Structures are given as structure tokens and as C-alpha cells.
């Protein structure tokens, strides 16, 4: 797995984008006095009868923290709004006010209702709050979480921008349970990882980046994508955005570096799930104006599904993730390279050779460009030994790597299994012996 940051185009959203979105309140931001409060976690069970007004009373006095997401940490104006919407309506909002503002329909001040979003002009960025009743709203101030009034508080009255009301469709699409048990397996797999921490170059389920999430989600469909974002973009089939379906994958450019640099799985109605650097976790986002500035294209990967109807392909595929083991000859012990190919081929040819040299000499030669699933590529190792690789279609090979065991690779994006090392391609008869 490539670990160097400059070689990865999995997304960490642009640094300038990130800093702009930290909620600043120059006039209202100072350290709040410490106090003991009864706090709740977003992991707690929320009473269905809880309202914004009831929750607001419980949160009053919690200190201001521009980077906080929970009562134990403190809140910015936007993270307070995000937290309350998650608690009351199980709706996932962004932790940044300007992205929250891209949602909803405009509401006149006189028509505001409980739960509507209210936006204000800050010194450096947009501030947000949640409307309650009789002109009052809840937000994060220098004194911590507090109630303010649109008509009576001079600071907020003079900085009011607009009110917004989320539509029913927006609430539905931003509610995780809407997408649970989705018909598209990649969406279901991605939803199971919601709220997992973001980590640039992360390649474990504990923490990961955008391209890993996409790669992992499609593996359950027998679709194996490259690890790097712009490589994924290269192998996909282009789809117009207006024709995008849930389960298609959207790509963005110029976020934290030039070129393809971020990706997410489309949920429909301009919403998508992604491992987000700016949100710090896997979340659902709206494809609004800010994201559309970086939008590059939609890709579909159905054509890359491994065809396991071929017996050799299927047998090799079943061995994925079996580790490399010197002189290993079985799944229980692990494999060396000759043991791997012998194990795959021997049920179909009892005379199949056991050594790499004889395996390379065995079978009939196939011209490059005429290969078929089940054929075997041979590459020259650094010490001139033949290295076998089972062709499974779509330019992909199943190989045995000393670091990752039995794996799927694409020579177009490999620095080791390269065309200049290709010795040749062999075809073996199935059903001999």
C-alpha cells in the first residue's frame, strides 16, 4: 500500500477551505468560566419527545470551543447546531456554518419556527444558531452556550443574515437510517462506517481516508478498485451528474492539491457519503455550491465486477488475503509463489508442475492483447525468477505479495508488476489429468 502523501489523492480538503470554516467570533469569543453541567453524548439514546427548546435548556452554559463537537469539549456556533440536530432529529449536518447555510429554504424573520436555522455575519466567518420561540435562538457565545434574541440583542440583530428551514427531503437524506439496508451494497457498507475517524493515508477500518472508504465499500461486490483516488477515476465509466444513481461515485479536484483529490459515494438527490478531512470523519454531505466548485465527474464501476464463473479465476479469488509463507503450499500454511499457482491449477491438471521454472515452461504461449480470464502472466523478479499472476479480466491480476499475501493488482498502477518485467502469458488446459 502506498503510504507517501504526495502519491495519494485521497482527500484532505483544502487547507484554506479548512481554516475559513473554523467558527470565529472575534467580538463574542473569550474563554468561558468553568462550570459543571450535565452532558450528553451523541451516542446516548435520545428520547423521542425531546425538542430543541428542551435540549437548549440542558446545554446552556457549556463553554465555547471552536473545535469542540460534544458537550464535554464545548461548541462553536456550527458544531452546536450540528449536535442539536443530531440529537433531536437524527439529522447529520456539517460542522461548518457556510455548508449548513447551503441547505434549506429561506424563511422570513416573522415566520421563523422552532428548529429553523438562523445565520449571522461574524468577523471572519458565518455564525449560526437554532431558532426557538418569540425571537429567541440558541447559539455559542463568549459566555458559552446561551439564548439570544433577534430583536433585543443588538449584536445579533445587526448581524442577522437570514433564516433557513430544512426541507423534508433534506432531513430524510441527511438521516442515516434512510440509507440503512440500502439495495446497493457499497452504500450499506459505507453507512456501516459512518462517524469513523478520518486519517489521511489510513487503510484500516479504525481510521481511513476517502479513497479507502470507496475501495472498501465496493469489495463486497467483487469490485476491486485502485487505492489512489485519481486511479479510481481512470478506471471508472463516466456518467453525467443528472444521470447519476445511488452507488455511483463522485470525484472532486483541486481541494487540497491539483487534480483529482477527493471522492464519495452518491446517495441520490445530490447527497453523498464520504470520509471527510474537513469534518474529521465519515459523514453525509450535500452536493451544494461549495462542493460543486470542485466537482469533476461521476464514475460507475459495475463493469469491473470480477467474473467468477471461470473456475481458475474463482479458485484464485477464494485465496485472497492468504499470507505469503516460504515453501508454503496450502491456505492453512500460506503460500510461496510456486505453491500458490500449483494449488490453483492442480485440480484441473494433475500433472501441473510444482516449480516456478517448469510452470513457466508449461502451457501454451498467448500474445499480449489476446489474454483471457484464467490465463497466467509471468513477470521477471529482481533475481530473474518467474513470478506468476492469474489474469481475472479488466486488466487485473491476482498475485502473491510478500507484504500483503494473495492480492489483486492492476499493472497500470503498479511500480513492481510492470510491463517491462513481463516475460509472457501462458494458457493452461482446464480438465486435464
Describe this structure in words.
- Mean pLDDT is 90; it is low at 1-49.
- The protein has 13 helices and 22 strands.
- The longest helix has 13 residues, at 77-89.
- The chain folds into three domains: 22-95 and 105-165, endopeptidase fold (from Nostoc punctiforme); 180-304, endopeptidase fold (from Nostoc punctiforme) (Alpha-Beta Complex), CATH 3.90.1720; 311-427, endopeptidase domain like (from Nostoc punctiforme) (endopeptidase fold (from Nostoc punctiforme), Alpha-Beta Complex), CATH 3.90.1720.
- The strands form five sheets. It has a six-stranded antiparallel β-sheet.
- The chain is elongated and about 90 Å long.
- It is α+β, with helices and mostly antiparallel strands and 433 residues long.
Amino acid at each position: 500500500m502506498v503510504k507517501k502523501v504526495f502519491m495519494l489523492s485521497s482527500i484532505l480538503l483544502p487547507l484554506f477551505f479548512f481554516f475559513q470554516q473554523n467558527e470565529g467570533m472575534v467580538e463574542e469569543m473569550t474563554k468561558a468560566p468553568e462550570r459543571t453541567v450535565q452532558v450528553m453524548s451523541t451516542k446516548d439514546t435520545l428520547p423521542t419527545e425531546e425538542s430543541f427548546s428542551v435540549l437548549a435548556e440542558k446545554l446552556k452554559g457549556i463553554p465555547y470551543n471552536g473545535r469542540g463537537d460534544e458537550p464535554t469539549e464545548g461548541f462553536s456556533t456550527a458544531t452546536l447546531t450540528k449536535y442539536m440536530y443530531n440529537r433531536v432529529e437524527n439529522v447529520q449536518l456539517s460542522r461548518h456554518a457556510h455548508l449548513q447555510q447551503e441547505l434549506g429554504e429561506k424563511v422570513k424573520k416573522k415566520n421563523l419556527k422552532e428548529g429553523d436555522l438562523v445565520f449571522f455575519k461574524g468577523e471572519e466567518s458565518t455564525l449560526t444558531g437554532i431558532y426557538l420561540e418569540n425571537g429567541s435562538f440558541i447559539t455559542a457565545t463568549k459566555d458559552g452556550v446561551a439564548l439570544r434574541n433577534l430583536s433585543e440583542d443588538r449584536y445579533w440583530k445587526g448581524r442577522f443574515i437570514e433564516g433557513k428551514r430544512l426541507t423534508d427531503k433534506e432531513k430524510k437524506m441527511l438521516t442515516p437510517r434512510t440509507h440503512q439496508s440500502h439495495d446497493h451494497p457499497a452504500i450499506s457498507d459505507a453507512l456501516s462506517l459512518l462517524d469513523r475517524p478520518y486519517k489521511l493515508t489510513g487503510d484500516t477500518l479504525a481510521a481511513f481516508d476517502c479513497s479507502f472508504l470507496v475501495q472498501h465499500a465496493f469489495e463486497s461486490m467483487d469490485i476491486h478498485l485502485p487505492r489512489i483516488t485519481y486511479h479510481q477515476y481512470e478506471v471508472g465509466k463516466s456518467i453525467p451528474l443528472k444521470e447519476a444513481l445511488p452507488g455511483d461515485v463522485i470525484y472532486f479536484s483541486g481541494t487540497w492539491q491539483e487534480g483529482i483529490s477527493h471522492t464519495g459515494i452518491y446517495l441520490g438527490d445530490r447527497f453523498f457519503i464520504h470520509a471527510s478531512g474537513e469534518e474529521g470523519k465519515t459523514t453525509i454531505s450535500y452536493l451544494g455550491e461549495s462542493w460543486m466548485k470542485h466537482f469533476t465527474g461521476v464514475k460507475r464501476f459495475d463493469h469491473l465486477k470480477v467474473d467468477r464463473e471461470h473456475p481458475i479465476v474463482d479458485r484464485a479469488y477464494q485465496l485472497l488475503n492468504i499470507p505469503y509463507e516460504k515453501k508454503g503450499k496450502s491456505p492453512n500454511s500460506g503460500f510461496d509463489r510456486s505453491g500458490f499457482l500449483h494449488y490453483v491449477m492442480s485440480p484441473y491438471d494433475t500433472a501441473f508442475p510444482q516449480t516456478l521454472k517448469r510452470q513457466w515452461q508449461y502451457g501454451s504461449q498467448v500474445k499480449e492483447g489476446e489474454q483471457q480470464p484464467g490465463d497466467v502472466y509471468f513477470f521477471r523478479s529482481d533475481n530473474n525468477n518467474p513470478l506468476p499472476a492469474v489474469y481475472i479480466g479488466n486488466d487485473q491480476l491476482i498475485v502473491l505479495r510478500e507484504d500483503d499475501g494473495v492480492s489483486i493488482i492492476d499493472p497500470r498502477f503498479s511500480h513492481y508488476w510492470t510491463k517491462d518485467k513481463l516475460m509472457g502469458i501462458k494458457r493452461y488446459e482446464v480438465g486435464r489429468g
